[in-house]
Specification:
This protein is an alpha+beta fold. The protein has 11 helices and 6 strands. Helix 8 packs parallel to helix 11.
C-alpha cells in the first residue's frame, strides 16, 4: 500500500510540474492553451485563456456553442470553418475577434490540431491562442496614418477641385469621423485645410507675378470666388492684404 501511495504522490507532483511549465510557457510566449473534448462537446481553457476571454480564472469549461457566442459576429463563420478543418486533421491557424463580457473586443490568432485514438478517430482538438490585439491596433493605426497622409497629399495636389467628405472617405477607405478627428487634432477642418492650400497657391502667384497678374484674377483662378472673404482670410493667414503682397513684389498696385 505504501508503494502505491508513493506512486500517486509522484504522479501528482509530475502533473503539477507540467502545469507549472505550461503556465510559464504561456507567460513567456504569450500563448494560451485550450482543448476541446469532442465526445463531451466541451472546451477547456487555461487560466490565461480565461483571462483573455474575460472569464474568471477558475472557469472550468464552455460548450462550443457558448464559445462561438463570444466570437465577433463577423468572424463566427470563419471560426466555425476553422474548427471543422481542424477536425479533419488539418493543422490550422486563424485570426479572429472575440467580444468579452465587458464589451471589449480582442484580436486572437488561434492554432489547432486534432488528436486521434488507436482507431484513427478524432477524440479532441488541442490548440494555442495568442492575443494580438496590441499588434493589430498598431498595424491598423499605421495603416490609417498612411491613408490620412495619402489623403492630405491628394488634397494638396488637387487643391482646385471640389470635395465632399463622403467622397474622400470612400476613396481612401477612411470613415468620415476619422477625417473630422484627424483635422480637428490639428486645429482645423477639411474645408479649412483646402482653403488654406488655395490661399498658399494664391500667395505663390502673387509673390512671383506675371506682367498681367491681378489679385482678382488670381483669386478666381484659385477658386476663392468671394473676394471679401478672400481678402480677410488672406490677411489672417499671412498678416497682409493680397494687394500688399503684389505691390511689394511687382512694384505696382492692381
Amino acid at each position: 500500500n505504501l508503494r502505491w501511495a508513493t506512486g500517486i504522490i509522484e504522479d501528482i507532483t509530475e502533473h503539477q510540474l507540467l502545469k507549472q511549465r505550461l503556465a510559464l510557457s504561456e507567460q513567456l510566449g504569450g500563448l494560451t492553451a485550450w482543448r476541446w473534448d469532442i465526445k463531451a462537446n466541451m472546451a477547456q481553457f487555461s487560466a490565461a485563456y480565461n483571462n483573455v476571454l474575460g472569464l474568471a480564472p477558475s472557469a472550468s469549461s464552455l460548450s462550443t456553442d457558448e464559445f462561438i457566442e463570444r466570437v465577433h459576429p463577423d468572424d463566427k463563420t470563419s471560426v466555425s470553418e476553422f474548427l471543422k478543418a481542424a477536425l479533419k486533421g488539418k493543422v490550422c491557424a486563424l485570426e479572429y475577434r472575440i467580444v468579452r463580457p465587458d464589451g471589449k473586443i480582442r484580436w486572437l490568432r488561434g492554432m489547432a490540431s486534432c488528436v486521434v485514438d488507436g482507431a484513427g478517430k478524432t477524440t479532441e482538438l488541442v490548440g494555442a491562442t495568442l492575443d494580438i490585439t496590441d499588434v493589430k491596433s498598431r498595424t491598423q493605426a499605421t495603416a490609417t496614418d498612411n491613408r490620412l497622409l495619402a489623403m492630405s497629399r491628394y488634397l494638396e495636389d488637387n487643391w482646385n477641385s471640389k470635395f465632399k467628405v463622403e467622397d474622400i472617405a470612400e476613396k481612401f477607405g477612411i470613415s468620415s469621423r476619422k477625417i473630422f478627428r484627424h483635422f480637428a487634432s490639428r486645429g482645423t477642418t477639411l474645408m479649412d485645410f483646402v482653403k488654406d492650400t488655395k490661399l498658399q497657391k494664391v500667395r505663390e502667384r502673387l509673390v512671383a507675378p506675371e506682367p498681367d497678374t491681378t489679385v482678382t484674377g488670381v483669386s478666381l483662378k484659385c477658386g476663392l470666388n468671394n473676394l471679401g472673404h478672400f481678402a480677410k482670410d488672406y490677411r489672417e493667414k499671412f498678416g497682409e492684404l493680397p494687394s500688399e503682397t503684389l505691390r511689394r513684389d511687382c512694384g505696382f498696385i492692381l
